[in-house]
Amino acid sequence: YGNSLDLVSLKKDENGINFVSRTSKSNGISGKVKQLPSLAPFSAGLITVALSGNPLESFLHLSPFYTAFHIMVLSPNEPMTMEQKIFYCHCIRLNKYKYSYGRQANSTLKDLLVPSIKEMPEWVKEFSVRKYTMQLISELNLEMKATIHRTETSNKLVPLLDLFTPVNGIAASGLKRFSYRPDDSYVPYLRPSYRQNTSFDAYVSKMSVNAKHVFPKGTLYVSTNGQGSHTFTYVSVFEFIPNSDVCVLLPKRDMSILEKLYYAKCITDNRYKFSYGRKPKGDRLQSIMLPEYSPPSVAAYDMSKVITEFSSIVGKL
Questions:
Q1: Where does residue 242 rank: exposed (0-12), middle (13-18), buried (19+ CB within 10 A)?
Q2: Hey, what long-range contacts does 98-104 have (CB within 8 A, 24 or more apart)?
């Protein structure tokens, strides 16, 4: 069983020990706390499982940690690779449907059936998180345009239409959609979503639509429909086709990826002005007031350093 600690009773420390709660976000980590002199944290390489709140949210931890109430900590009975532990997190999470806020897993977690190591699929044994992540990093070529050194500064707010040309997506009717990618001519067909990784709807052939509806990676787009997804704005990391509830924003001046990310945050921050009955479409979207220029801190931010630092962390896995 976990530590059953209360976060509000601990002293927060940005450089301290991870504190794991029952949240389903951020690998279960709610913050960092100062190490307790009388209590050693759990060691890295263990799995935590939420028993209530968000039952069976399971995570592998690569750093020492403390836990909140109703958290079970799993230690392997025999040596396991990181990939095998992640596989078991997935297996445990697949049992979430058996539980709810009123049916907790405190007494039944130990009875869950999961594959033995001998029954584990071969691809789990062959898969390498380190190699896969390094491959993703090597493919991350977002053309950051570091040569753009903007000297303009302004505290002025201007309508979105002064900065971007909105282009609406296309309806799904008449499109042949696939859950898998038949070949390289198929690209993601994006829908509104509150998270970028869930905005994927299907794969659609570029040959089946007008070329003007196919947009390159590094393109800014905004969700214009859905109670839980409207106004969320993202910068694409791949070529895509937007659906009719997604609006692409084409900059009227040259912008770096960092500037686009800045404006994505600014647009998303206007979400409180809209609802399912008052959608950010047409004039409403175009009249959102945005800073005329991004602050100097955006241009000074060096994303390549972040990628380099992340690569060094992955290299230690």
A1: buried
A2: 99/55, 99/56, 100/55, 101/52, 101/53, 103/55, 104/51, 104/52, 104/55, 104/70
CA–CA distance, 200 with 51 (Å, rounded to integer):
31
Place of tokens 């990784």: 197
Distances (CA, A) of 247 to 20, 55, 68, 259: 38, 36, 42, 18
- Distance CA(160)–CA(284), nearest Å, equals 10
Residue type, 177: R
Rounded to two decimals, the pTM is 0.63
- Tens of pLDDT, residues 38-91: 899 999 999 999 988 888 899 999 889 999 999 999 999 989 888 999 999 999
CB 183 within 8 A of CB 208: no
Q: Which two tokens stand for residue 226?
A: 């859905």
Pair 60, 86: CB distance under 8 Å: yes
Nearest CA to 206 out of 229, 227, 183, 222 is that of 183
Give the pair of three-digit tokens for residue 292: 């005329």
User: What's the N-to-C CA distance of the chain in angstroms?
Assistant: 26
Reading the block at residue 132, the tokens are: 């896969």
What whole-number distance in Å separates Cα of residue 204 and Cα of residue 181?
8
Q: Which domains does the chain have, with CATH numbers?
A: 7-118 (3.90.220.20), 157-295 (3.90.220.20)
Which residue type does 247 have? C
Cβ atoms < 10 Å from Cβ of 65: 26
Cα distances from 20 to residues 64, 95, 100, 105, 152, in angstroms, run 10, 21, 20, 17, 44
The conformation of residue 239, written as its DSSP 8-state character, comes to: -
Count CA atoms closer than 13 A to 92's CA, side-chain side: 26
